[in-house]
Amino acid sequence: MGASDFAKLPHIGEPVRRKEDYRFLTGAGQYTDDIVPEGTTHAVFVRSPHAHARINSVDKSAALAAPGVIGVFDGQDVAADKIGGLPCGWLITSTDGTPMKEPAHPILAQGKARYVGDHVAMVVAETLEQARNAAELVNVDYEPLPAVVDVRDARQAGASAVHDEAPDNHCYKWAIGDKAQVDAAFAGAAHVTRLDLTNNRLVPNAMEPRAVIGQYNRATDEYTLTVANQNPHVERLLLTAFVMGLPEHKVRVIAPDVGGGFGSKIYLYAEDVCLTWASKKLNRPIKWTCERAEAFLSDAHGRDHVSHAELALDKDGKFLALKVHTDANLGAYLSTFSTAVPTILYATLLAGQYSTPQVYVEVDAWFTNTTPVDAYRGAGRPEATYLLERIVSRAAWELGLPQDELRRRNFITSFPYQTPVALQYDTGDYHACLDQANQLADVAGFEARKAASKTKGLLRGIGYSSYIEACGLAPSNIAGALGARAGLFECGEVRVHPTGSVTVFTGSHSHGQGHETTFAQVVAARLGLTPDQVDIVHGDTGRVPFGMGTYGSRSISVGGAAIMRALDKIEAKAKKIAAHLMEASDADVDFANGEFTVRGTDKKVTFGQVALTAYVPHNYPLDKLEPGLNETAFYDPTNFTYPAGTYICEVEVDPETGVVRVDRFTAVDDFGTIINPMIVEGQVHGGLVQGIGQALLENCVYDRETGQLVTGSFMDYTMPRADDFPSFQLGHVCTPCTTNPLGTKGCGEAGAIGSPPAVINAVLDALAPLGVKDLDMPASPHRVWQAIQSAKA
């Protein structure tokens, strides 16, 4: 079945209410912290108070003697048991052909602590209070060392080395594009726009903090790890094959309800390994639930790029070439996918929606004494879009052109389109997105609104952002050639029951995306059922086939496509059963709306009849078909999917205080086929809030001298709230994806990708009359006020 036929099926495009919301809204959800196995003990981690320090000794004696304590572990215990370090899942090769530097990442620090919050010891006790009290008794003899937290400092000669294996703190130098061609294009350019910018570091702050329960069954020699995680099978693979050296079938990983992830729950963390390992040593279940203050220190952070970009244009404003240099902060250790974020997931998107003939990107990645940095909602795509859309708007202003006009002149109009940075876009209509956004945003009325703002002593600005992202990372063989150390396929199993209801087992995982509803709509549409007749099972390696989990807006386009392939097999077998029942050839049988019919006759049987026959095979072609109706399929995409859109933001700025208020925000997206528009709108709203939050409010700051986390709580790290936003105007354009059977493209990250540059461009447009030409995120009142004062001076 092709994407065009699929889009016409019942339930596709319907705003079906989320099936899972009842249990969440009534308090019936089950998160990791809700689970209390019999005999549960509690773990507390002793974390380094220093950004960089040599560990001379760890004295555990007082803690071991404390009430209720049953175990205290440090790096020496880990080394004695030959527990490996946390692996990095993507190998990057430097431009000189050498592999990236990959220092060991021990689950408990050995020899040195390398960031504030680094794991030094773990205390396990009968109660959480006892574990907390005993943790304070662990005496660690630290020898503080100089710390480096900013990439601009890390790259300086003589900077303190985070790892002996990287004495200059340099992890790799990576590049893509034809530098010679780019240089030649710049030599003949009529105009060159230059821009320096920082993409600020963020803390994920999912609603549910991370949580882990490690259990060991001595009778079966099996482990069970219950964990708030986005991809249980990958967690198990990394844990068994790369860290603990366990047989994979002896470890079960369960990710129950998960309260948000945004990428921060993709990874194998030290706590996951520590509790699994120690549960066997103590022969007791061990639970750890992260406190919010710990989350600020220990959850993988996002973004943190420092970049210089130059855009060459001809006399008509056509883009000739783009060159970019980025310094990426990796933190103290390599996290699971950290190395792919500023390379494969970033530089390959710097063509954007534009037909720029040549692009060259160079990335230097650095170790610092900070929390490891990894994928956070968008993962490289927001960083690319922010840089590109900022420099495009700046070029428009320098040339005296409207922001939308310069974009129009350079949009790609013919597909498929091969970019100069490896990707090939299959389809899109960027002009349609921009036209609809202009209409919904009432751009024609902007000048009148600007004049009205001026009468109130406020400055009004408008900002554009035309983003593109690559979703559903694929295919596995190409990703492997680019350094991926895992496959990128997905799996789906469709199990039809004798009564005709269906259970689907998927390797994707839901942590707020609504898979239990959307996947059910897909299956119901294909089989002529209602969504209530379809159950979705995920998040348990003991029940679902091997899959890669949820990240990169891949669930419906990759996980859904795997389910579609399994449904193809179900339909093919069911047609054979129906043909037998109707005494016809299966080549003459059609299936639609839950009924099998024989072309040219009035014969028909229902899907329910076929299902029952498959399991009660009295009138059944047993000589040709096995009983039952249960099929599994794997799907490895042939290409990324490419959601795209245009966002328009209007802000009012108070020049006396620097306060920025988002007055209007319009988002027009092309997600291809939309299964459930209500869920899609919710995903876009959430992404917009996170993106606008980065642009105006959120900023993770370390003290540049001491390495201490300055923004270590919600008192210092400003989270967005409902009253920070207007009502969003949303629109949709549909050019179905041509590389998967649903025509879907992914929607979960778009809002966070397209919104930050739209906001900052709007702020700069408002401040232009005052002479302000540049401003980094977040555009907080203090920063905006400072920029205004500097321009006046």
Strand line-up across the major sheet: 3-5-1-12-9-10-11
CATH topology of the largest domain: Aldehyde Oxidoreductase, domain 4
Strand content: 15-25%
Overall number of strands: 28
> Tally the helices: what do you get?
21
- Termini separation: 65 Å
- Overall tally of structural domains: 3
By CATH, the architecture of the largest domain is named 2-Layer Sandwich
Which CATH class of the largest domain? Alpha Beta
Low-confidence stretches: none
In CATH, the homologous superfamily of the largest domain goes by the name Aldehyde oxidase/xanthine dehydrogenase, molybdopterin binding domain
Using only C-alpha atoms, the radius of gyration works out to: 27 Å
Level of helix content?
25-40%
Question: How does the overall form come out from the CA principal axes?
Answer: globular
Main sheet summary: 7 strands, mixed
Coarse structural class: alpha+beta
Mean pLDDT: 97
Structure description:
This protein has 793 residues and is α+β, with helices and mostly antiparallel strands. The chain has 3 domains: 3-11 and 489-635, Aldehyde Oxidoreductase, domain 4; 32-145 and 209-258 and 265-298, Aldehyde Oxidoreductase, domain 3; 305-474 and 639-792, Aldehyde Oxidoreductase, domain 4, CATH 3.30.365.10. 29% of the residues lie in helices and 22% in strands. The protein has 21 helices and 28 strands. The strands form 7 sheets. It has a 7-stranded mixed β-sheet with strand order 3-5-1-12-9-10-11. A 5-stranded mixed β-sheet has the order 7-15-14-13-8, sandwiched between helices. Strand 26 (644-653) and strand 27 form a beta hairpin. Helix 11 (381-399) crosses helix 12 and helix 17 (555-582) crosses helix 18. The N and C termini lie far apart (65 Å).
